[in-house]
Write a structure and sequence with these properties.
alpha+beta; Substrate Binding Domain Of DNAk, Chain A, domain 1; 4-stranded antiparallel β-sheet; 2 helices; about 15% helix; globular; 5-stranded mixed β-sheet; 9 strands
């Protein structure tokens, strides 16, 4: 298992994605020769299984500031929401590149060596990524405990056009 790094220095990854994974149940392998369409379908499947939250702020926001906060910013430009069930292995911020490696190789973890474990206890959470409208290139993640009947059906990767 990866070691936790400083969860106060979170960033959108270098490809412009925000990816949170619950590694206990994540199943990311697609095929050694996967196509982008197959990869995106696997992401949607894993989001609907509640073991992945992924959104694509885009290349202009690569490495942008990312905060984990108990509350949303006062003004939000856009937001993406999903539900994740966090197990004993925790909830980790990983990156798109590592998810593509896990998609290509069955024995590859979804956690990069730079993955950051977030301070979230096991349980079921509504995850929302907010693009802060008051601070340039700043994104805020909220994780709110939710009940068994709360769901968020995904049909695509949020903000991926």
């Amino acid at each position: 298992m990866q070691s936790a790094t400083d969860p106060t220095d979170l960033r959108v990854d270098e490809d412009g994605f925000v990816a949170l994974v619950a590694p206990d149940a994540y199943s990311g392998f697609v095929d050694e020769d996967w196509e982008l369409e197959d990869l995106l379908a696997r992401f949607v499947e894993q989001m609907n299984r509640e073991v992945l939250f992924i959104a694509y702020p885009g290349p202009d926001d690569a490495n942008a500031a990312l905060e984990l906060s108990p509350q949303a910013p006062s003004a939000t430009r856009r937001q993406a929401t999903g539900v994740v069930t966090v197990g004993e292995d925790g909830l980790w911020l990983t990156d798109y590149t590592q998810l593509t490696m896990a998609a290509q190789f069955a024995d590859e973890s979804a956690l990069s060596r730079y993955a950051q474990r977030l301070h979230v206890e096991p349980g079921r959470y509504r995850i929302t990524l907010h693009e802060d409208a008051t601070r340039e290139s700043t994104f805020v993640l909220t994780a709110t405990a939710t009940g068994a009947h709360d769901s968020e059906i995904q049909t695509d990767v949020p903000w991926f056009d």
